[in-house]
Amino acid sequence: MTAQNFLTALSQALPEIPVKTDADSLDNWGKDWTKHFAPDASAIVFPKTTEEVAAIVKLANEHGTPLVPSGGRTGLSAGAVAAHGEVVVSFDRMNAIGTFYEADRMVEVEAGVVTKALQEFAESKDLYYAVDFASSGSSQIGGNIGTNAGGIKVIRYGMTRNQILGLTVVTGKGDILELNGGMLKNATGYDFRHLFIGAEGTLGFVTKALIKLEKQPVNLTAMVLGVPDFNSVVALLDRFGKALNLTAFEFFDNVAMDKVLAAGHAKPPFDSRTPFYVLLEFEALSDDVLDVAMGVFENCAEDGLIEDGVMSQSVGQLHELWKLRESISETISVFTPYKNDVSVLISHLGNFIADIETIVKENYPDFEICWFGHIGDGNLHLNILKPDNLSKDEFFAKCQTVNTLVFDTVKKYKGSISAEHGVGMTKKPYLDYTRSQAEIDYMKAVKAVFDPNNIMNRGKIFDV
Fold it and tell me: According to the lineage, what is the superkingdom (predicted)?
């Protein structure tokens, strides 16, 4: 009954805030892209201002009503799923792009701004928002901040954390904090901004952000390379990374290529087929840079690291080549993939993936496996595709039995069980593979300071 009492109080105190309780809305806003947990929200509320968010949080504290933040709902760890009767706070109406600080190359945006809209705004100012991934047309900035989203440009520009110069947040107590104010230099004690980045809404809700914009890259050029094995992928990263200022270095396997081509989402880059593919991108600032790229390509081909390849000759061809990589997630979604999003040091990649492939082949001999990832930053996506003869629950249960083996290997190489998707609920049981118990205890202590009544995204990352 706490949710009903909360909603009654909300309608009396703030009748201007829209509330939805119909079944379709509860299902739509109560879930994200994960399919592990059924949504069970009590209501969806749609604030318009930071002050309204603060009022919602204070009322939730009074009535003991847990809240779940909702952005573009593109998350892959159930971090935005309301599975236990929570009230969902949607940021869809908080979607304004505010003040642009030209001299600082910085813009203020509300949490509900869609990533693609920010990218287009930056382009209108002849600037660049560097965080990019397949869900950019749906994901919202608040969600990106909550998971410290990465994507395809991390090798050059870093994660979302690297783009955030300031935040406005509402804590679990309902306090409004304005953090850092967009300054590059501010040596005045703890920078709480970085606590909220990657916290998945468990400490409070981000309502606004001051975003750093970059110079527009010039004459982006891509190469797609067919390679014989994964060790060649790692060797190519080393050779091209030393010779060129890369903006991206992605990889995917032949299964991913098969699915994308079969779905008609892209065209084959060349006639031959290979076990693995690399897509690398760089700024071709001059013909000399192109000559260097071709020289590395020829040397690598002579050494057997490359079996075939193509370089984009136009912006149109650049976009066509990127479809091979960016269409993978959408293409394989129809196969209900069980996803692992892990990272290790680049130095360990070759041995790590060999160990994981042994585990996969021994335990999933009848399952189709799809590899892809942002190999330039040590991030691998292992996707196990559901066979037609298994139900979703049967399939997930089989996958989860091997999770400990996969995460044991991650721990062996001192990696992360979640590189960019967050922990949410799907990775919560495995948090101690990456974080020590002492770290987890400190995290819980920090949450208790900002959210003493445990109403902010309860049950995500860890249980209190």
Answer: Bacteria
Query: What pLDDT, on a 0 to 100 scale, did the predictor assign at position 246?
Result: 96
Residues in the chain: 464
Q: Which token pair is 293?
A: 């790229």
Q: Are 369 and 384 in contact (CB under 8 A)?
A: yes
Does the structure show a pLDDT above 60 at 333? Answer: yes
Cα angle vertex 34, ends 28, 37, to 5°?
80
Q: Where are the alpha helices (DSSP H) in 30-108?
A: 50-63
Q: Is 200 left (phi over 0), alpha (psi -120 to 50) or beta?
A: left
Walk me through the domains of the chain, giving residue ranges and CATH numbers. 2-93 (3.30.43.10), 97-215 (3.30.465.10), 220-329 (3.30.70.2190), 336-438 (3.30.70.2740)
401 neighbors 393 (Cβ within 8 angstroms): no
Single-letter amino acid, residue 217: P
Mean pLDDT of 161-181: 98
Instruction: Measure the CA–CA gap between 426 and 76, rounded to whole angstroms.
Output: 8
**Burial of 272 from C-beta contacts in 10 A (0-12 / 13-18 / 19+):** exposed
Q: Does an H or E element contain 275, and which?
A: none
Full DSSP string of 140-206: BHHHHHHHT--BTTHHHH--GGGGEEEEEEEETTS-EEEESTT-S---SS--THHHHTTSTTSSEEE
* Number of neighbouring beta carbons within 10 Å of residue 261: 17
Is pLDDT at 50 greater than 90 in this prediction?
yes
| 75 close to 33: Cβ distance less than 8 angstroms | yes
Sign, CA torsion 233/235/241/243: negative
This prediction's pTM = 0.92
Report the first-to-last Cα separation within the chain, whole angstroms.
22
Give the Cα separation of 403 and 432 in Å (integer). Answer: 13
| Residue 275 CA from chain centroid, whole number | 26
Q: Could you say which DSSP state residue 72 is in?
A: S
In the three-class reduction of DSSP (H, G, I as helix; E, B as strand; rest coil), residue 350 is classed as helix
Could you tell me which residues come within 8 angstroms of residue 428 by beta carbon, excluding any fewer than 6 positions away? 459, 460, 461, 462, 463
Residue 393: phi and psi, rounded to 5, are -65, -40
**Separation between Cα atoms, residue 432 and residue 408, nearest integer Å:** 11
338-343 and 379-385: which strand pairing?
antiparallel
**DSSP 8-state assignment for residue 80:** T
Question: How is residue 80 written in tokens?
Answer: 């935005």
Encode pLDDT of 230-286 as tens digits. 999 999 999 999 999 999 999 999 999 999 999 999 999 999 999 999 999 999 999
d(CA 250, CA 248): 6
